[in-house]
Design goal:
Elements: H1 5-15, E1 19-20, H2 23-28, H3 38-41, E2 51-53, H4 58-71, E3 75-78, E4 95-98, E5 105-109, E6 114-117, H5 123-131, E7 135-136, H6 149-154, H7 162-165, E8 172-178, E9 184-187, E10 204-211, E11 213-214, E12 218-225, H8 228-240, E13 247-251, H9 253-261, E14 281-288, H10 293-303, E15 307-308, H11 311-319
Parallel strand pairs: 2-4, 3-4
Antiparallel strand pairs: 1-2, 5-6, 6-10, 7-11, 8-9, 8-10, 12-14, 12-15, 13-14
Length: 341
């Protein structure tokens, strides 16, 4: 679908350098962070948009929605396109609405432990601002360094910290939604069903207000198991005994094997010593310093045949929580991005 010269002029007059019709730019927006397998490319429709626009505020989102509905132009919401499942990729051309210019931290309430942000606010930036005020996030995605608040809500919202905090929607207090007809709807509670996992098809999120928590020192421990069944029994026991953990994740021997084969300096800069992780089933537990978890974890792991790994390995695994797809550099493969316990 292409825009007429009249439609282009209209958009150019309103958005100036925040609207782009260039062919090369449009091609860049015809995919997300993942590459679509050739077997499926024929079913992907027309993935190249006719234009990319970057609104600055809610009023412009309303203006875009009304214009698109009157002109029968499909709109596709796009944050940082980190999910890899195609939700930000056009199917019938249309116009991509990118939220890179709507990334403000609108308000932080330290007393109520809450924050209000624009949809394009990046998680790492949000957390940095919170930490300056003695607060931190209750949960965040493994794409924390790059992904957006609205993008995570629109794609489900489960990740690091969800073991304790639940899905992101469980922390959301209020969402403002610009609907396809330009009307604004304020959502909370069960009404959040309209945007959670919707990937933007129900409208554009213009702001999100959600709960956060006081900042506290975090500790991590890692345990290795020879058998998947033993690791599973350990995790089940942790849940049944209600051990106070904030985050719980695991990896299998194949994932460790891939990481141990990764080049030491895959892009540039000096090389570094390799820390090889055991090619076993590794369970990584993170908990707050005030928690009683440390006193319980060791004995419970040993009971199920697990071995406590040294602090260096645990920290290494924790610092790599934002890189679940690194092993893809070694060649084509099918690797799930994350598994939430």
């Amino acid at each position: 679908m292409e825009l007429t010269s009249q439609q282009r002029r209209y958009l150019q007059d309103i958005f100036g350098d925040r609207i782009n019709f260039e062919k090369r730019e449009r091609q860049l927006y015809s995919s997300d962070v993942a590459a679509l397998p050739g077997l499926l490319s024929g079913m992907a429709g027309h993935s190249e948009p006719a234009a990319i626009v970057q609104p600055r505020d809610e009023d412009e989102l309303v203006q875009i929605a009304v214009w698109a509905q009157n002109n029968k132009i499909p709109l596709i919401a796009r944050g940082k396109a980190t999910s890899g499942y195609g939700g930000t990729v056009p199917f019938q051309g249309g116009m991509v609405v990118e939220f890179n210019r709507m990334r403000k931290i609108m308000a932080i309430d330290t007393g109520a432990c809450s924050i209000k942000v624009q949809p394009g606010a990046v998680w790492e930036d949000i957390d940095r601002r919170l930490r300056e005020r003695g607060l931190t996030l209750k949960s965040y995605p493994t794409s924390y360094p790059a992904s957006t608040a609205a993008g995570w809500l629109a794609t489900g919202g489960a990740g690091i910290g969800s073991y304790e905090a639940g899905y992101f929607r469980d922390s959301v207090l209020q969402v403002r939604l610009v609907q396809p007809d330009g009307e604004i709807k304020v959502l909370s509670g069960e009404d959040l069903d309209l945007v959670v996992n919707a990937s933007g098809i129900s409208g554009f999120i213009s702001s999100i207000e959600f709960r956060v928590m006081p900042l506290e020192k975090l500790e991590v421990q890692a345990f290795a198991f020879d058998q998947a069944s033993a690791a599973a029994q350990f995790i089940e026991a942790l849940y049944e005994e209600q051990v106070p953990l904030w985050s719980l994740s695991f990896s299998n021997p194949e994932a460790a094997r891939y990481r141990n084969r990764m080049p030491l300096n895959p892009h540039h800069g000096p090389g570094r010593d390799r820390l090889e992780v055991p090619e076993q089933f590794i369970v990584l537990a993170a908990y707050w310093h005030s928690s009683s978890a440390r006193e319980l974890l060791g004995d419970m792991a040993a009971k199920h045949g697990g071995a406590l790994l040294d602090d260096e390995t645990a920290l290494h695994e924790w610092e790599n929580r934002f890189s679940p797809m690194k092993a893809k550099r070694l060649g084509p493969s099918l690797i799930p991005a994350e598994v939430v316990v």
